């Protein structure tokens, strides 16, 4: 009798695809040859042994060893999910990883993407019910599915990939799945990680407190990497990075370069400057250096643009000329989640963009901060995939020694409102007592519950309200979900739907460095005086009126891609609205439409409000001084504004800002605006004056209206 590994190997080398009995294509064989080189192939017998004997296993292996692309396929060969109407799913922390890996694996398995192999990310579902049996998805999407099907009964095996990244959703999924595997002995669970620090996972998933979950180690074939620190601290890491790349290109041997920087803008700028630097060298001496291509890599690129990292380096200019070189300039996405082959040199800036949420003052701060020692090690490791490499660190050894050992898990630095709503929806009565792998501070959870209570999603006992149940069905932050659910009462749900969709996609406003004036003029012509939310609505409507013409977008400096994504989001949210009985209404232009849109937004965003005092703005209740972001389109300085986000960068900025009438705050958020209990101050006095002008108090109006009108039974 053949073992599973042997049987699978025979099937891979055969002439017919075992999953659909069709002959393999020629392309399949080409890719198979490369796949067989991956370390995981040499250990198939061991892998299948462990997989057949255990319900839960942990897999660890170097980046590029084949965890993401190969393990799910190997599982499918054993699991045969298609023969019993089940699926194998593999989660990814990043949207871009889920979509691009799905495409790669569809090619590897000789299928069309979206048929047998597909992906599912927010607002973009490339699967075919009944046909898809291997699905790559974001961890957030699987968490969403758990909200409506807590046993995840459609799946035979779940693979939580990149667990070392410790994203909020992956952490919550680990807790949920620990419970599900007990209820469903037929469900297999695989946790994969790129770092050796797996003891925590093994302990967490052990059957009792003394036993560890089994660990499968993929033996990588890595080469030594020489790590070189700078001698003196650098003040400008981008400038240092660019000259380091140019230096390597001039004097170091053949091999591609991977440069780690922090964000899109910085990366695009660095690519331009590196290209310019090479041109300058060539002007002095046409034979100074070989050809060089610079390829940016960050999360908001689309899958096609991201594919460019797999291009070979440029060829020599002529036979006997200098070798070409590829430079990939990346965020920490290339640390573990995307493998770039052929890298021999790593240039490590030592920083990354990190986001930390402070629940006490409800502030998200985004800053460029030193990475951890673990990250620095991962970055260096990227240089040793093909042959011995070098890692040039743009920081001193002393600076390195001061880095933290590990990054803080996402759950300890995120806003937990959506998570608490999800946990309550799934049936966790008390989010504080959930079995977390790392528990967040109870205060952070209480703050989140409190916000959900103010929004009307949780009642005073912590149970979901009717409103909360509907909000939980929408793949949106609670504030946006609330605004959308109540919008029919204001006769503007179509408008709020468009605004919510626009807020769910990357920034639409383009501002190329060499066309700033033109871009600002175009933006001004699309701006609506009442606020940025109305301007977003206007952009969307104008785009639709102009037949979604890419030339219109181009001429108006707005992103066609973001608009197409918003359109897709709108379509999906619309079908959810129909399913959950949220009426689609529009009162048409004029007749106070803009006021009603802003009032509906206030129902979701009354906790994100700032008041003008003198020349400055202060957030209500928390009293933080904030600045209106320069990108905002308000032409006067209204007394009261609501904002979509608060970011602490160089200053505390509020972004996407709209003027509101304080009367709406008193009417739509009575319990939050219990101004009699507030400390004295200008905001309180202003609201008291407003209250005195109102005819009568209308208490308890909101919950009733939502029940009667907004949600059909
Ligand atoms: P791991 O998850 O262990 O880091 P992966 O499964 O992502 O490893 O990658 C295995 C190999 O597959 C890598 O060598 C990578 O270069 C290759 N690979 C992945 N995606 C593509 C693609 N789109 N085109 C070409 N090669 C790819
Ligand atoms: Mg991977």
Automatic annotation (TrEMBL):
It catalyses: ATP + H2O = ADP + phosphate + H(+). One of its GO terms (cellular component) is spliceosomal complex. The keyword Metal-binding does not apply. Its EC number is 3.6.4.13. It is an enzyme of class 3 (hydrolase). CDD domains: SF2_C_RHA (cd18791). This is RNA helicase. It comes from Thelephora terrestris. The lineage of its organism: Eukaryota, Fungi, Dikarya, Basidiomycota, Agaricomycotina.
């Amino acid at each position: 009798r053949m073992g599973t590994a042997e049987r699978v190997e025979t099937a891979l080398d055969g002439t017919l695809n075992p999953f659909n009995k069709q002959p393999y294509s020629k392309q399949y064989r080409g890719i198979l040859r490369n796949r067989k080189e991956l370390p995981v192939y040499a250990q198939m017998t061991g892998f299948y042994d462990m997989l057949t004997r255990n319900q839960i296993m942990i897999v660890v292996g170097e980046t590029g060893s084949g965890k993401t692309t190969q393990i799910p396929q190997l599982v499918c060969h054993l699991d045969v999910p298609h023969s019993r109407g089940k699926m194998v799913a593999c989660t990814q922390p990043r949207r871009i990883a889920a979509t691009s890996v799905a495409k790669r694996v569809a090619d590897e398995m000789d299928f069309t993407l979206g048929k047998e192999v597909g992906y599912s990310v927010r607002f973009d579902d490339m699967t075919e019910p009944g046909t898809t049996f291997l699905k790559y998805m974001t961890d957030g999407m699987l968490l969403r599915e758990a909200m409506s099907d807590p046993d995840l009964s459609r799946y035979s095996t779940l693979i939580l990939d990149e667990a070392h990244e410790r994203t909020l959703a992956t952490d919550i999924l680990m807790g949920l799945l620990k419970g599900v595997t007990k209820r469903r002995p037929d469900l297999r669970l695989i946790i994969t990680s790129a770092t050796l620090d797996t003891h925590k996972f093994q302990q967490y998933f052990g059957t009792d407190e003394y036993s560890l979950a089994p660990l499968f180690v993929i033996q990588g074939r890595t080469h030594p990497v020489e790590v070189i620190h700078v001698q003196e601290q650098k003040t400008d890491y981008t400038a240092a990075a660019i000259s380091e790349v140019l230096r390597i290109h001039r004097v170091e041997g053949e091999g591609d370069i991977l440069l780690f920087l922090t964000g899109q803008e910085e990366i695009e700028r660095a690519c331009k400057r590196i290209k310019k630097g090479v041109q300058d060298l060539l002007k002095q001496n046409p034979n100074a250096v070989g050809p060089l291509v610079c390829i940016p890599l960050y999360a908001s690129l689309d899958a096609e643009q991201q594919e460019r990292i797999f291009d070979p380096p440029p060829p020599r200019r002529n036979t006997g000329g200098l070798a070409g070189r590829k430079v990939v300039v990346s965020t920490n996405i290339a640390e573990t989640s995307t493998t770039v082959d052929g890298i021999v040199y790593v240039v490590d800036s030592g920083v990354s963009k990190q986001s930390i949420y402070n629940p006490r003052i409800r502030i998200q701060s985004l800053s460029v901060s030193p990475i951890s020692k673990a990250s620095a090690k991962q970055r260096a490791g990227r240089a040793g995939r093909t042959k011995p490499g070098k890692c040039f660190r743009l920081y001193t050894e002393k600076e390195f020694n001061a880095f933290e050992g590990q990054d803080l898990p996402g759950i300890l630095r995120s806003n937990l409102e959506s998570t608490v709503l999800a946990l309550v929806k799934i049936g966790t009565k008390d989010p504080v007592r959930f079995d977390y792998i790392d528990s967040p501070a109870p205060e952070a959870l209480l703050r989140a519950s409190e916000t959900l209570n103010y929004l009307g999603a949780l009642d005073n006992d912590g149970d979901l309200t009717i409103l909360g149940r509907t909000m939980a069905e929408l793949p949106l932050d609670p504030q946006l979900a609330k605004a959308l659910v109540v919008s029919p009462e204001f006769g503007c749900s179509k408008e709020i739907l468009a605004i919510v969709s626009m807020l769910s996609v990357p920034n639409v406003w383009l501002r190329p460095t060499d066309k700033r004036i033109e871009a600002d003029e175009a933006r001004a012509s699309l701006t609506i005086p009442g606020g940025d939310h109305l301007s977003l609505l206007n952009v969307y409507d104008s785009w639709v009126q102009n037949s979604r013409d890419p030339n219109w977008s181009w001429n108006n400096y707005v992103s066609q891609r973001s608009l197409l994504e918003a359109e897709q989001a709108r379509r999906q949210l619309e079908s959810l609205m129909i399913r959950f009985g949220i009426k689609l209404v529009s009162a048409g232009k004029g007749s106070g439409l803009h006021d009603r849109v802003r009032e509906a937004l206030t129902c979701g965003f009354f906790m994100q409000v700032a008041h003008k005092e003198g020349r400055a703005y202060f957030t209500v209740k928390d009293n933080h001084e904030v600045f209106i972001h320069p990108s905002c389109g308000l032409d006067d300085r209204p007394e009261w504004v609501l904002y979509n986000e608060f970011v602490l960068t160089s200053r505390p900025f509020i972004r996407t800002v709209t003027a509101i009438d304080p009367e709406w705050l008193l009417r739509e958020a009575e319990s939050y605006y219990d101004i009699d209990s507030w400390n004295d101050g200008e905001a309180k006095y202003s609201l008291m004056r407003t209250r005195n002008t109102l005819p009568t108090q209308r208490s308890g109006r909101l919950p009733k209206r939502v029940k009667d009108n907004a949600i059909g039974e």
